[in-house]
Design goal:
Elements: H1 3-22, H2 27-58, H3 62-87, E1 100-104, E2 108-113, E3 119-128, E4 134-139, E5 144-151, E6 154-157, E7 164-165, E8 171-173, H4 187-192, E9 197-207, E10 210-219, E11 224-232, H5 234-237, E12 243-253, H6 263-266, E13 268-273, E14 278-280, E15 287-291, E16 295-301, E17 305-315, E18 317-324, E19 331-342, E20 348-359, H7 362-366, H8 381-401, H9 405-436, H10 438-448, H11 453-467, H12 476-479, H13 482-494, E21 514-522, E22 526-530, H14 531-550, H15 552-557, H16 559-576, H17 581-604, H18 607-619, H19 626-637
Parallel strand pairs: 1-8
Antiparallel strand pairs: 1-2, 2-3, 3-4, 5-6, 5-12, 7-9, 9-10, 10-11, 11-20, 12-19, 13-14, 13-16, 15-18, 16-17, 17-20, 18-19, 21-22
Helix pairs in contact: 8-9, 8-13, 9-17, 9-18, 10-11, 14-16, 14-17
Amino acid sequence: MDRNTISGLVLIFVILITFSYFNKPSKEEVEAAKRKRDSVEQVQAEQQRIAEKKAQEATTTQQPQEKADSTTTAKTAQTSENRKDEYGAFGDAAVGTEKFVTLENNLMKVKVSTKGGRIYSVELKNYKRYDGKPLVLFSGDANRFGLNFFSQNRSIETDKLYFTPSVSSDSLVAAGPKVPKGKEGRINFNEDHPGGSKTLTMRVNAGNGKFIEYVYTIKYNSYMMDFNIRSQGLSQLIGGNAYMSFNWAIDVPRQEKKSKYGEDRYTTIYYKYHQDEVNSLSSSKSDSKDLTTSVKWIGFKQLFFSSILIADNSFTSAKIKSNKTEDNPNYLADFSADVTIPVDNAKTQNVPMKMFFGPNQYNVLKQYKLQLDQEMNLGWTIIGWVNKFIVIPAFDFLRRYINNFGIIILLLTIYIKLIISPFTYKSYLSQAKMRALKPEIDEIKAKYGKDKAMESQQATMALYKKAGVNPMGGCLPMLFQFPILIAMFRFFPVSIELRQQSFLWAHDLSSYDSILHLPFTIPFYGDHVSLFCLLMTVTNVFYIKMNNEMNAAGTQQMPGMKTMMYLMPVMFLFIFNNYAAGLSLYYFLSLLLTFLQMFIFKKAIDEDKIRKQITAKQKKPAKKSKFQKRLEDMARQRGMEAPKK
């Protein structure tokens, strides 16, 4: 650029600035223009407002709704496209409308959702919650049920996909013959009186003939439902992954009224290894476990009901978790199970399983021969045998003919008392013999005094031996009664037959019978008064008092034991106040029958006659034992004299 050009540009710039300065409007002109512009804008705004008002009055409210619908549709279309892209081959199933199909028989209703093809809820028709509402084992969108795997570098969760049902109906009912009382869910009855069955298939397609199906089959009068996972071309979709995960998780609703020795204490997860014993997570706190070997079944257990997933063969492994909820009036825990399922390279694959939804009733669980009955925890070894072979058969027999469970418990108590009556009689007879020797025992005590306690004890034992009285004869027969007492302690709290059965003032024999609610809580006792527990305690105190009076000789020998015996009823008062009323009723009736037995035995046993027999036996020379005779014979053969007494 030369010098003349630069000079010309500078001159033009100066002229423009000078022109702008001298032609600038005055302050008054600027204000007048502004007022004019504002007036015009106000008029235009008012005209626009009037026009919009007229348009709004002339149209219906459908216009804004159509506008909102248009916006929602646009957003939905955008979301749908995103979801289809997110799920790859399963993209078409990522969007849909949730519908429900109900599978039903005479015992339960199983609601299956098209969203996830999953079991949405399970209701047991013959039972109610403690508040009278329908008993639902689990329900709601918070529960999870479906397969998890990777496909085309995408994480697929089938419980978020929409499945297509095999039927157009929203209800499938399996019908059959009338089921008599006590035959609900029994395999033997169903074999002789077969009913119908219904099958529902939920399918999710992945294109090109590939799909996943959940096949549910419900049978009449059965708590067990067949559940199969079928797939075609799945191995092609998941690539080199040899396993997929089946996730089942539920929020466990409260079915019984809250009690620290009730439902809260028994709710946990049970599991059985393929060829091993049944185990469980902790029932008192949150717990989890990795099951690294083959698993046969996993059970979500409450006090009286269970939901159990059972493999026809076995699951490769599993992770189970129980998250206990604290002070929740509606839910007890969150249960989850992640089960590993192998993927077959074959074109089609079928994974057969079963699901049990029903009561924790011993005979119902035992019939499947899968050790499901061990969920009830009736006790180990001899305690469990007493319950399984003595108590439960008698209880089931009585309930076939009697509807009043208070009467059933009374008859069961009489039955148990008759079984142990030979031991009770032998114990009472031994105590009678001890009472007959009381004068001689008093003489020994007076002879040796307190300073020679060892000599007194030796002389007393020599007296027992010469009279043919076993001082342990009254204790040993009682030991045989303890397994029955403990067995009843195990049986009554878990017996579903007592659930919601009333007797006298008790509205539910499976829970505590509160006659008075306290405005405060007593530690270890609770905030209520259980009358059956109170009656049991008072009766027990009278029994101990009477027993001590009848066996004064024995209690004098062990004075500390007397105090200990009176402490036991007090301990039982605190323990049993929160236990099942049926258990307190049984112990109360058992003590009353014990009083009756003692009265009968006292009339049947003549203590004066026993006294004479013991006195006559004391005069006879002591009978030598076979061992002592052999020693004397050996001594004679060697030319030695037998030791003189």
